[in-house]
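Fig. S4 source data, part A: sequence.
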Amino acid sequence: ATMEAQYRASGLPVILLRGGDFLDETAPGSFLNMVTLKGLAKGKLTIAGTPDVQRAYAYLPDMARVAVALAERRAELPRFADIPYAGLSISMADLKAEIERQSGRKLRYTQMPWGVMRLLSPVWELARELREMRYLYDLPHSLDPAPLARLLPDHRDTGLQQVVAAHLAARNAVKAE
């Protein structure tokens, strides 16, 4: 919030592109890769909250294309452009169903070890930050697609089916035909 206020007050041209949790099959540090899909080979999907809660996700290749397109149109934007990138709005139940459909395997949910995160939070910054954001895993949320649609009406996001296919291929977890 402090950085954003400083950017806003600076008078410099700024494009603030907001997105949900990052998705990218090539990003080992993403929450999806580090936590959610970590037990996929064992038939487990680790979730941090309620499975049916819709949440905002940003597939990074799509968000990067949006960032480039906005930068190319910089002259048409306000000096401080705060633009939400809606990306995908899905639940863990949606993700599980699509993975099961594509992989041909049944999955079970396991819960994120929040008790362990609480114990580690005094000495591990990531555990502390995850605990601060825990409420977001049980609170439905999304980003408004309208502002971006007005600016980039031809932009199309990659669908959940393709995003899951890319993640499964990266993990060699594709259904044998």
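Fig. S4 source data, part B ends here. The two ends are 50 Å apart (CA to CA).
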